[in-house]
Design brief:
This protein is mainly beta. It has two helices and six strands; from the N terminus they run E-E-E-H-E-E-E-H. It has helices spanning 64-69, 113-123; strands at residues 16-23, 31-44, 47-56, 74-78, 89-99, 104-110. A hairpin with a 7-residue loop joins strand 1 (16-23) and strand 2.
């Protein structure tokens, strides 16, 4: 399921940060467009989909204890071209986002292989990622 294959070709690839619709946890009928680090592909009901982890520019280091109490775990991944202001980003490790290709709005940038591997190592604590 997981792989590192970024290619600046306008198509989504694992290792890239893309923008897609992410439903809110407390009300899945609502959500917002946000950056997602693609970690691999999966097939659900015969349809290939993308597995990813959402990003934020909010710093959760200061409230890590509160976040963990609610089952939310974050990892710093640095800044990249996915954020127009190049703010440092964090990836949420415990919530796997599944995206249809049609719901991916744009390609942001790729993380380095080193960051990708570190994210997968940490995310495997919460998900069975191949």
């Amino acid at each position: 399921m997981t792989s590192y294959e970024p290619e600046a070709d306008g198509q989504p690839d694992p290792g890239e940060v893309v923008w897609g619709w992410v439903p809110f946890e407390d009300d899945p009928s609502q959500g917002k467009d946000r950056p997602v680090l693609l970690v691999g592909r999966t097939v659900i009901e015969g349809v290939e989909r993308w597995a990813g982890l959402m990003l934020t520019s909010h710093d959760h280091d200061r409230d890590a204890e509160d976040e963990a109490r609610f089952g939310r775990y974050w990892m710093d991944i640095g800044a990249g071209d996915w954020d127009s202001e190049h703010r440092p980003s964090e990836v949420r490790l415990d919530r796997l986002i599944i995206l249809d290709t049609a719901s991916i709005r744009r390609e942001g940038a790729a993380v380095s292989r080193e960051v990708f591997d570190q994210v997968l190592t940490e995310a495997r604590r919460y998900h069975a990622l191949g």
